[in-house]
Every structure is written in C-alpha cells, then in structure tokens.
Amino acid sequence: MCTIGEHFNLTMKPVDREHQHPDWERVAASAGFKDLLAVKRLFIVPAFLFFLAYFFGLLLLTAYAPKLISVRVAGMVTLGYLLALSQFVVGWIIAWLYLRAATRFDRLSRDLLAPSDKT
Fold this sequence. Notes:
The protein has helices at 4-7, 24-29, 31-64, 66-69, 79-118, and strands spanning 72-74, 77-78. It is mainly α. It has one domain (24-118). A two-stranded antiparallel sheet has the order 1-2. The chain is elongated, with a radius of gyration of 25 Å. 0% of the residues are buried.
C-alpha cells in the first residue's frame, strides 16, 4: 500500500526561507505599486460614487417625489418597486464589472511581484 504522496507522485521540496516572501517595503515604495493603486482607484471610486448616487437617488425620490414613484407600471407594480429591485441588478452588474477588472489588477500584481521573486 502506498501513501497519497507516492500515489500522486508528490515530492516535498525544502522551503527556501530567504526567498519565501517579497520585500513588501520595496514593493510598496515602487512606481509599479503606485500605478496599481491608481488603476484600482480609477474603477473603484467611480463605481462606488455611481452606486451611492443611485441608492440615495431612490431615497430622495421617495422623500421628495412620492407621486412619481407611486405611478403604477403594471398591475400593482409601481415605479418605486422597480427602482428598488433595480438596486440588486445594478449591484450585481457592478460586481461583475469588478470581477472583470480584477483580472487586470491580478495581472498587474503578478507583474509587480515577479521581479521580487527573482531576487
């Protein structure tokens, strides 16, 4: 009978403690890291501000235009209900867009850490 490691042909490699972690201070001080933060900020801040405005827009409509949001769209469904439910849809769309943008962030992070792995 063999062990799981032998069955899957896994070998234990000694850990190189010197090169296990990148030099985080050097990474944080690098221009590439600052570029990564700027790229992330270009997505996160506008997305946050858009959703915040969208969210509070519904609250403001509720407070200051109750007749508008009480307009029936179909049967008992009002514009207010549709706007409230659209908050979920918009939230999921922003999450999906962030997921797409995160692949770029990950690629930039890997490129940023690659030189520190070689030192």
